Amino acid sequence: MAIVDRIESLDALLERYADTLGPARQPYTNHNYRVANFCIELAGCGDDAEAVDKIGIACAFHDIGVWTVGTLDYLEPSRKLAAEYLEQIGKSQWLAEIEAMVMEHHKLRTAGASAGPLVEPFRKADWIDVSLGLLRFGLSGEFIGQVKARFPNAGFHKLLMRATGAQLMRDPLHPMPMMRF
C-alpha cells in the first residue's frame, strides 16, 4: 500500500487548468490525489503505468467542469474536455473507459464493467473521498488516513458545499444535477 505522490499526466493537466482553478487548485489537486490513490489500491494496479496514467487523466477531468462552466451540472462538460484531450494526445482508444470514469463517478449504484476495469474502482474511490472516508469499500481505515494525511482536504469539501448552495439557489428543483442512479 504505497502512496502515489506523482502522476505526470495529472500534474500536467492540473498545470494546464491552474488559472481556471484559481484558489481551488490545491484543494482540487489534493482531492485528485486522494481519489487516484484510492482507485489504484482498489484496482490493484499500482504497477501498471498505463492504468495509473488513465486514472490521472480521469482524475484531472472528473470534476473540472465545476470550474470551466461554473455549475454542478458539470459531467458532460468534463467528459467533453477529457475526450478532446485524449484526441489531442492520440489516446482515443482510452476514450470509452475514461468517459465512463468521468460520467459514472457520482453514480449511486455499481457502475457497469463493460467500459473498462477502472470505472467501478474510480467510482468507489471518489465516494470514499467525498464521504471523508466513511465509505471504505474494503480499504483499511489506516490506508485512507495515510492518504488523507499526505493530501489534506485543504478546503475541498467547503468548496463543494458552496457550489451546492449556489446550485440550490439557481435551480432548487435540481440541486444535485451530477448525481446518477
Q: Approximately what portion of the residues adopt beta-strand conformation? A: under 5%
Low-confidence parts: none
| Oligomeric state, counting identical vs distinct chains | single chain
**First and last CA, distance:** 31 Å
The average pLDDT is 89
Give me the number of helical elements. Answer: 10
Instruction: Identify the overall geometry.
Output: globular
DSSP summary, beta strand count: 0
Biggest pleated sheet? none
Topology:
Elements: H1 8-16, H2 18-21, H3 25-43, H4 49-62, H5 65-68, H6 75-88, H7 95-103, H8 119-130, H9 141-150, H10 156-170
Helix pairs in contact: 1-4, 3-4, 3-8, 4-6, 4-7, 6-7, 7-8
Any overview of this molecule?
The structure is a single chain. The protein is mainly alpha-helical. The protein has one domain (8-170). It is built from ten helices and no strands. The chain has helices at residues 8-16, 18-21, 25-43, 49-62, 65-68, 75-88, 95-103, 119-130, 141-150, 156-170. The protein is globular, with a radius of gyration of 15 Å. The model has no long low-confidence stretch (mean pLDDT 89).
Search tags:
181 residues, globular, mainly alpha
Short characterization:
The protein is an all-alpha fold. The protein contains ten helices and no strands. Helix 1 (8-16) packs parallel to helix 4 (49-62), helix 3 crosses helix 8 and helix 4 (49-62) packs across helix 7.
